[in-house]
Design a protein that fits this description.
The chain is about 25% helix and about 25% strand. With about 300 residues, the chain is an alpha+beta fold. The protein folds into 2 domains: about 200 residues, no CATH class; about 80 residues, OB fold (Dihydrolipoamide Acetyltransferase, E2P) (Beta Barrel), CATH 2.40.50.140. β7 and β8 form a beta hairpin. The protein is built from 7 helices and 10 strands. Strands 2-3-1-4-5 form a 5-stranded antiparallel sheet. Strands 6-7-8-10-9 form a 5-stranded mixed beta barrel. It is elongated, with a radius of gyration of 25 Å.
Length: about 300
């Protein structure tokens, strides 16, 4: 079977490489996401997502999305589910199907009758997936814009998927600045595609995906933590282990201007108090810290 869904991953900087583990994590996330999106359409059957080829440049992965077998040999259980699906993938097919079921003389027609002459093409399943990914970015907040042209049931389910972290794993490399963007298309040449990038990825993430939202950009904070590493290979920085609400975060901590990590070897593997400026571009990404003051913490009895 020919590929019907294509993914293009672009690095942060031109000619940079994309780590295989980051690519793999994202593809695993998209595999789960596609299964969730097929459920939104109410298509009945076992979803299969297979990578069938790989292309260089910006990394392109060609895949096949198909339904292994339909329940009772029918992809939909009800006529309204079929019509909702056709509404988002093919206006002409939706119109013809509506006429097929609405003609008075044909009021007895069933889904069996329709699919006998109109078998489901796996390509339009891929079209539905890209359509829903595109629409989802406008469905994070309630109420919805009713002029979006998407069935209400689809909109409600997509809204819930966002707030159930359905997109989180797929977009993890974007959140962590490992890749710049991912494009999804049914067109092998990507002339028409849905693009999720550094500018719009936050529309696909729920409130629970926010990272340390109390640390606001530009704010100077007093924080307690531990220096766990000193890095100098890609610019001088320290790793600051910060615990908030019982969760551990490893944050980049940059020395003041004209200083390097060599000035902070005495703090390595030590618990410290710091004063630092918060630097962040998104509430969904880990903040970075610009150090202005540091001291060893005075250990108290039973201090953790």
């Amino acid at each position: 079977m020919k590929p019907n869904l294509h993914f293009k991953f672009s690095p942060i900087k031109k000619n940079n490489e994309i780590d295989l583990s980051d690519l793999g994590n994202s593809l695993v996330g998209f595999d789960r996401l596609i299964r969730d999106l097929v459920k939104v359409t109410c298509i009945r059957g076992d979803v299969s997502v297979q990578a069938v080829s790989y292309r260089d440049g910006s990394i392109v992965v060609d895949t096949v999305v198909k339904i292994k077998e339909f329940v009772d040999l029918l992809p939909f259980e009800r006529i309204d589910e079929l019509l909702d699906f056709l509404q988002i993938v093919n206006a002409y097919a939706w119109q013809k199907a509506s006429e097929f079921f609405n003609e008075i003389k044909s009021s007895h027609r069933t889904l069996n009758d329709y699919f006998a002459s109109n078998p489901l093409d796996f390509t339009i399943i891929a079209i539905a997936i890209t359509y829903m990914i595109d629409k989802a970015k406008s469905l994070k907040e309630l109420p919805f814009n009713q002029s979006m042209g998407i069935p209400t049931q689809y909109a409600m389910k997509l809204h819930k998927l966002i707030h159930k972290d359905a997109f989180k794993t797929a977009l993890k490399p974007i959140v962590e600045d490992k890749i710049d963007s991912v494009e999804i298309s049914v067109d092998r040449s990507f002339e028409k595609s849905v693009k999720i990038d550094q500018e719009n990825f936050h529309h696909y993430l729920g409130d629970d995906d926010q990272i340390l939202p109390h640390l606001e950009n530009g704010e100077v904070c007093d924080l307690k933590g531990e220096i766990t590493s000193l890095k100098s290979t890609r610019g001088d920085s320290l790793t600051f282990k910060y615990i908030f609400e019982s969760k551990e975060y490893n944050l980049d901590l940059f020395p003041p201007q004209d200083e390097t990590t060599k000035n902070y070897t005495d703090y390595y593997k030590e618990k410290v108090n710091i004063k630092a400026e918060v630097i962040r571009t998104s509430i969904y990404k880990k903040p970075k810290l610009k150090l202005t003051f540091i001291e060893l913490r005075q250990m108290k009895l039973f201090d953790n």
